[in-house]
Amino acid sequence: MRGQELLTFVVYDIADDRVRFRIAEVCKDYGLDHIQYSVFSGPLDATRRSELFARLSDTLGRAEGRIIVLQLCEKDARAKREIVQIARSE
Amino acid sequence: MRGQELLTFVVYDIADDRVRFRIAEVCKDYGLDHIQYSVFSGPLDATRRSELFARLSDTLGRAEGRIIVLQLCEKDARAKREIVQIARSE
Asked: How many Cα atoms sit within 13 Å of B67 on the Cβ side?
């Protein structure tokens, strides 16, 4: 049974290319979208979010890095504000 | 008068060094802490958060980039999970 899904953000800062790639793969395994260079987001329930955090922790292992996992309640998700500006092709 | 302050995250992805530097300076002006390479966070009330968003938008101007501003209610702030692993000095 699925619990209530909340918009979840994973934001990381990892210097090692191989480790960073593996962290991104874990996020994709959980159905999250790649919305910035080192940011994934998507809906997850509390159980999946905890599993994801454990997987991220295992995947980082002893490598240097910072990973934050955030959940946003419906109100906070509605309050999210975003600027997306793509380069014009010249 | 100050409204209720909520933990606020600014997460950005900006290729141009000069623009990225200016975005970081705006975040510092609002008292936010630099917690990852392209992430700032700290408490702001709704008025200051809106002002900050407008400043970020003006500062980005027509440059290419992505900026997300998130607010976390107290419950979401408590649920934040983080891994911080600093390199051992050899």
From this structure: 27
pLDDT surpassing 80 at residue A89: no
State how far the Cα of B40 lies from the Cα of B26, in Å rounded to an integer.
Answer: 10
- Amino acid sitting at position A89: S
Using an 8 Å CB-CB cutoff, list chain A residues near B27: none
Predicted confidence at residue B87, as pLDDT, reads 73
Two structure tokens written together for A14: 């990892």
In chain A, domain spans: 6-78
Percent of chain B residues past pLDDT 70, beyond the cut: 96
> Cα–Cα distance between B1 and A74 in angstroms, integer?
27
Quick one: CATH architecture of A6-78?
Answer: 2-Layer Sandwich (3.30)
DSSP assignment of B30-65, as one string? TT-EEEETTEEEEEE-HHHHHHHHHHHHHHHTTS-E
On whether any CB of chain A is under 8 Å from the CB of B73, the answer is yes
Test the A interface: residue of B66, B73, B80, B84 with most A CBs within 10 Å: B66
SS (H, E, C) chain A: CCCCCEEEEEEEECCCHHHHHHHHHHHHHCCCEEEECCEEEEEECHHHHHHHHHHHHHHHCCCCEEEEEEEECHHHHHHCEEEEECCCCC
